[in-house]
Amino acid sequence: MPVLVLLVLVGLPVAEVFTLVQVAQEVGAAPALLLLLATSLLGLWLLRREGTRAWRGLRGSMAGGQLPGGELADAALVLLGAALLAVPGFLSDVVGLALLFPPTRALARGALVLLLTRRVARQLGISPTALRAAAAAGGGWPEGMQVPGGARGGGAGPAGRGGGQGAGRVIPGVVVEPEDGRDGRHGH
Predict the structure, then answer these.
(1) DSSP assignment of 80-104, as one string?
(2) Statement to judge: residues 94 and 107 lie in one domain
(3) How far apart are CA 161 and CA 153, in angstroms?
(4) For residue 155, with 0-12 CB atoms within 10 Å meaning exposed, 13-18 middle and 19 or more buried, which class applies?
């Protein structure tokens, strides 16, 4: 993985400079630089506009009691696209524009979901199929699956919070306050 990061950090700037030189040779240096400046300004404007719109959409979802699923992924991809437009470079502009258009953004969202599902499944030690099935069933962990914190899944709600025996299990009941004022813990 570090080799891939190094290749990206070195390779992308080299590719951007190479592309800039090629474009400058075709249309001239001044028009190429003006085009870079225009796309950067467009990216900054879109970043501000779409960032505000994404924030409003997320707040609206949360205020309505919904978890922002697709809205969150779309907002992240639109913000990434606008940020790539703001960065000077023709290659980053192409990727940024692709993330701004809904059809190509849908492809990127699918790839992002697939990547994140694989990564989370690998960290949990389960198959991506089992993770997708659990998510499609309304959350919760597959029956008998080992979950973070050492508990075993029972298909009821998210587990792993707090860890320990019985984490992730929902036990219906009623909380009753003792009449004598004691809280029922040892060591009064």
Answers:
(1) HHHHHHHSS-HHHHHHHHHHHSHHH
(2) no
(3) 12
(4) middle
Do 57 and 126 fall within a single domain? no
Task: Tell whether 61 is covered by a domain.
Answer: yes
Per the CB < 8 A criterion, the answer to whether 80 and 115 are in contact is no
Which bin fits 139, alpha (ψ -120 to 50), beta or left (φ > 0)? left
Give the residue numbers spanning the domain of 39: 17-100
**Residue finishing a domain among 74, 100, 126:** 100
pLDDT tens by residue, 27-44 = 999 999 999 999 888 888
Q: Is pTM, for the whole model, over 0.70? A: no
Identify any residues that bridge with 146 across adjacent strands, giving them in sequence order: 152
Among residues 19, 41, 144, the alpha carbon closest in space to that of 92 is found at 19
